[in-house]
TrEMBL record:
It is found in: Cell membrane. Keywords: Cell membrane, Membrane, Transmembrane, Transmembrane helix. Signal peptide: none annotated. The keyword Cell membrane applies. InterPro entries: EmrE-like, UPF0060. This is YnfA family protein. It comes from the Bacteria. NCBIfam families: PRK02237.1. It is a multi-pass membrane protein. Belongs to the UPF0060 family. Its main location: membrane. It comes from Cupriavidus campinensis. The chain crosses the membrane at residues 29-48, 60-77, 83-103.
Length: 107
């Protein structure tokens, strides 16, 4: 379970970085050179998704819960926005959903 959780978290960071860097270019006028690590990060994200042990659709569904949690951590750490109780409650619900999907009994 720890390995799967870490894999989901690393995958989410790769996706967020791959999307955040172009956002910086487009919204804050940062250097176009940031698009190079953004593309690398998105390629890493796609590759990391292939390392998950279940069918693609189930992986994407479970991954969504972790993505939300990592995005909230990013909001706090990178953007400096204080999380609300609603954010934290939503994160718990998302992690519970991820666990239900990822840990279901295998046939």
């Amino acid at each position: 379970m720890l390995r799967l959780t870490l894999l989901f978290a690393i995958t989410a960071v790769a996706e967020i970085v791959g999307c955040y860097l172009p956002w910086l270019v487009l919204k804050q006028g940062k250097s176009m050179l940031l698009l190079i690590p953004a593309a690398i990060s998105l390629a890493l994200f796609a590759w990391l998704l292939t390392l998950h042990p279940t069918a693609a659709g189930r992986t994407y569904a479970a991954y969504g819960g972790m993505y939300i949690v990592v995005a909230l951590v990013w909001l706090r750490v990178v953007d400096g926005v204080r999380l609300t109780g609603w954010d934290l409650a939503g994160a718990v619900v998302c992690l519970a959903g991820m666990a239900l999907i990822a840990l279901q009994p295998r046939a």
